[in-house]
Write a structure and sequence with these properties.
binds protoporphyrin IX containing FE; disordered N terminus; 4% strand; globular; Methane Monooxygenase Hydroxylase, Chain G, domain 1
Length: 459
């Protein structure tokens, strides 16, 4: 397929630069004297990075996007799925994609100033984009995959307002993709239901639920970080004993996060996860350089946009923890032991890159958060609790590495289920070591992150 229109309707590069004053904000911290106010960054005291309520549907003028999303499940299957159900649905799938190609190009003016509806539009359009791309028969793909302008242009426009990548992200799959089971009850892991599920599997649903459990547990950490940021003098006796108590609390929270990670072994089937689920989240660069790129039709300079796809590496809660403890993923500080050769070979820009897939306000929250490490270094009574928190995070990363070994690395050489056709790549097409959906070489990356964590320990 070729670009159907020579007209460039939106220029990604011209407007994609981060301008905090332009971003749509839901609320400010008026009336509160604190210097650091998470609400300013759309971080809620009870729901954290989740919006406090499920996102409202788009207005009638944009219902064509909502309708297209609602029709997708059960009609669209991965292009490589050769199962009887997938084959039976091929004609319906082609009709759906045809409808997307001929969908009118809609303006986003009606939602331009409405943060929640912009988020909803991003979730709806990015999900449609991934349904479209990953169901497209290989025979229809030439050098690159063309995302029709009816989706690409408004998705790029809302992404610029939200300052987020124009592709499926962790926010679309986990933060913005749920509804209450009982709307009269507060947000909790037992009172939320995930709505869109690409693969229709329990593995996908349970991955979202486990990620949500991490986010909700993370709210307790955000409370600790806010308390720290609003200390007038972090070195007075009262403040240091509060910090010591909070660092000890943090150890407990990180251990609970680790239990959530470990519990996924019982709820997320590795084979289903590898072959049916994560394929849907892949972006243009996830599979390495030997796979077709994506062209955002109607968007000029789209080659400068981040199209890596969704990864839990985009969870702001986890990044906040790294910042608070000052984990040096970039290997910029002189810490011991010196990084190994493998550590040096890892993708040091990965964590920074993942931030570009977060909503701009959440990224801004992270940019304004400070670390407790320097104070802990200067204060003998804080060294031990600080080190305990670092070591708890190191153990969490060890558990995560074990999970990734089971779910990704060992699966890369496993036999696909009977319905999934995998064309054996030629020697020149082989992509090398296992990649995550974020496109990184997984094992080296995660071990480098674990080692960088351990290096934060104060000697
Ligand atoms: C079946 C469970 C999981 C699997 C198979 C998995 C897989 C991966 C992979 C392959 C990466 C490498 C980066 C990339 O995406 O390219 C990664 C990174 C990451 N994942 Fe997971 N993940 C799982 C669960 C989670 C959960 C529940 C969270 C928390 C919300 C999480 C948080 C992270 C973070 C923060 C990174 C960045 C690297 C780091 O901080 O060490 N993961 N994960």
């Amino acid at each position: 397929m070729r670009l159907s229109s020579p007209i460039h309707l939106l220029d990604w590069a011209a407007t994609a630069a981060w301008d905090a004053s332009q971003v749509v904000r839901s609320t400010t911290c008026s009336g509160k004297l604190s210097a650091f106010c998470p609400r300013t960054y759309d971080v809620d005291p009870k729901s954290g990075f989740f919006p406090p309520q499920p996102l409202p549907r788009l207005p009638d003028a944009l219902s064509v996007w909502e309708d297209a999303l609602q029709e997708a499940p059960g009609v669209l299957f991965l292009a490589q799925d050769q199962g009887p159900q997938a084959i039976a649905k091929r004609p319906a799938g082609e009709r759906w994609r045809q409808k997307i190609r001929s969908m009118p190009l809609k303006s986003i003016d009606a939602i331009r100033d409405d943060l929640r509806r912009l988020q909803r539009a991003h979730m709806v359009l990015a999900t449609i984009m991934h349904y479209y791309v990953h169901s497209l028969p290989q025979a229809d793909v030439e050098a690159s995959i063309v995302v029709p302008k009816s989706v690409a242009v408004p998705l790029s426009a809302v992404s610029q307002l939200l300052q987020i990548a124009p592709v499926l992200t962790f926010a679309d799959t986990v933060l913005w993709n749920w509804e209450f089971i009982d709307p009269t009850q507060p947000l909790s892991i037992d009172n939320m239901r995930y709505v869109n599920n690409f693969s229709g599997t329990q593995a996908e649903n349970n991955f979202y639920l486990a990620s949500a459990a991490v986010e909700l547990k993370g709210v307790e950490m955000l409370d600790i970080f806010e308390g720290f940021m609003n200390l007038r003098d972090a070195t007075d006796t009262h403040a240091t004993s509060m910090l010591a108590r909070d660092l000890t609390r943090l150890v407990k929270i990180i251990e609970e996060l680790e239990s959530i990670f470990v519990s996924m072994r019982n709820t997320v089937d590795p084979h289903e996860f590898y072959w049916n689920v994560r394929q849907w989240w892949s972006g243009a660069t996830s599979k390495g350089p030997n796979h077709p790129g994506w062209v955002l039709e109607g968007v000029r300079s789209a080659d400068q946009a981040d199209l890596g796809g969704a990864s839990a590496g985009q969870s702001s809660v986890m990044h906040a923890l790294d910042i608070f403890l000052d984990i040096d993923h970039r290997l910029q500080d002189a810490r011991t032991p010196a990084p190994s050769d493998n550590n040096r070979r890892a993708d040091h820009g990965f964590m920074d890159r993942m931030r570009r897939y977060m909503p701009g306000l959440h990224r801004e929250y992270l940019e304004n958060l400070s670390s407790v490490r320097e104070i802990a270094e200067r204060t003998p009574s804080l060294r031990e609790p600080y080190n305990a928190a670092v070591m708890a995070l190191k153990r969490l990363r060890d558990s995560h590495i074990r999970i990734v070994a089971i779910y990704v690395i060992s699966k890369a050489n496993s036999t696909p289920p009977a319905n999934i056709r995998v064309d054996k790549p030629s020697a020149s097409q082989r992509d090398g070591p296992s990649r995550g959906t974020g496109g990184s070489e997984v094992s080296t990356l995660l071990k480098a992150g674990r080692d960088a964590t351990q290096r934060a320990v104060l000697k």
